[in-house]
Amino acid sequence: MKILIVDDEEVSLTSVRRLLKWRGMKNVEICDSGKEAVQRIRRENFDIVLLDLLMPEVDGMQVLESTKPFCPQTEFIILTAVDDIPTTVRAMRQGAYDYLVKPVNNELLVLSIERAYERKGLLAGLSIHAGCEGADIPSDFADTITEDKQMKALLSYAQVMARSGNPVLITGESGTGKELMACGIHRAGPSPAGPFVAVNVSAIPSTMFESQFFGHGKGAFTGAESPHKGLFEQADGGTLFLDEIGELPQGLQSKLLRVLEEKTFTPLGASRPVHVDVRFVSATNTDLDRACQEGKFRIDLMYRLKSAYICLPPLRERRGDIALLAAHFLKKACERHRKELAGFSPEAMQLLMHQDYPGNIRELSQMIDNAVILASGPVILPAHLGGNAAPEGPSSLARRSLCTLRENDMAHVMYVLDSTGGNRREAARILGITLRQLQRKLASVNG
User: Fold this and answer.
1) DSSP structure string for 167-213
2) CA angle 76-118-260, nearest 5°?
3) Which of 6, 125, 199, 388 has the fewest CB atoms within 10 Å of its CB?
4) What do you get for the CA distance between the two ends of the chain, in Å?
């Protein structure tokens, strides 16, 4: 994140820059002239500009009006000692992201910057997909299987935000692919060659937190017979993925916050602090905002973790991906169990398409894995998926109305042919007959 502070008061410039650097924003530049600011903003690529309104010669409003049209991707935050509603409205109409009155609360300023940067990334990600219905999935997220427009836009946003190196919070129901997203963010980030260390926070007892995260020296406590490198150190130069962060006990939240802010910690039994360069990605399926309101989670820690925010949609909101995911999981399950299956019967696919999937993608994967184990024929049937039949649609009702064996036989042939996309050779193989026999059956229908 590249930030420019524009203010004619030296004290304000230095104090704000010191605050931002202390909060981990390293690329912060200053400018004490509105005229110079116009030139620099047009010439350089700043992500955020903190702009004072009251300056001699060229004031902040003139800077905004002279640069925003030429730098639409730059987000401007107005800082002023004058709380003037007409000026605020004018600044917002000119494209300012926020308007803060001095003296500005430090937490409010940092939060505004993080939200402005998040908005910049979102707009950049969405612009990539504007008018590109068939846009490719970013290469760093190639293991995400989707044709859903919303998911593709979300992946592009994640790609943009990943490059900043700032903390990212991923939310979503269980089984939506939060760790898969975290891996993609690591690959797209500034240190893809570094380690990716994943840890389930809820699985670590509170008594072991410091030892597991900070590490310890030999003899630091009873049973510490050898030195142990903690998770922070293991992830140095890479990414630490904190899954189920919402389950972190309150007493440990302040310790995590300190590492997030200072990137330093002292292992148990050690006398010197250790500095690490770690990118933090966290995930939760709980509502952190509500947890903060209820006093169960520190609001300052949430803001640090939520520098960028990604909410993964449940599978029921991207039903167009179900068939695509099912085919992928079928192939993997067949390889794992050394079976050869051609696909799903139409009834089985219809059953898959109508599930609610409270366990989301993980549930779909497990269903298909079990179905491959149970299947004895060439295709997956509803019974293999734990259902007797798919919810009735027009085709199901039409089939129920058939009364002769010949009609039922032909209906099955047509279903299989339809499931193969009209590929007669493949349909014949699934049905266990020759291509010529299939052609004769179809000819009898047409004749």
Assistant:
1) -EEEE-STTS-HHHHHHHHHHHSS-TTS-EEEEEGGGS-GGGHHHHH
2) 110
3) 388
4) 71
Interatomic CA distance for residues 59 and 65, integer angstroms: 10
Taking all residues of the chain, what is their mean pLDDT, rounded to a whole number?
81
Task: Determine how β-strand 215-216 pairs with β-strand 228-229.
Answer: antiparallel
Cβ neighbours around 317 below 10 Å, total = 14
109, amino acid identity: L
Q: Which two tokens stand for residue 188?
A: 């797209």
Answer whether 355's CB lies under 8 Å from 386's CB: no
HSE-CB of 343 using CA atoms within 13 angstroms? 21
**CA nearest to 63, candidates 73, 72, 76:** 76
pTM as predicted: 0.62
For the chain, domains (ranges, CATH) are 3-105 (3.40.50.2300), 131-313 (3.40.50.300), 317-446 (1.10.8.60)
Rounded alpha-carbon distances, angstroms, from residue 74 to 78, 102, 155: 13, 22, 21
Kindly report, residue by residue over 111-163, the tens digit of the pLDDT.
Answer: 888 878 877 766 655 554 444 444 578 889 999 999 888 888 888 888 888 88
Give pLDDT tens digits for 229-266. 889 999 999 999 999 999 888 888 888 888 888 888 88
Q: According to the model, what pLDDT value does residue 96 have?
A: 83
Region 372-399: mean pLDDT is 67
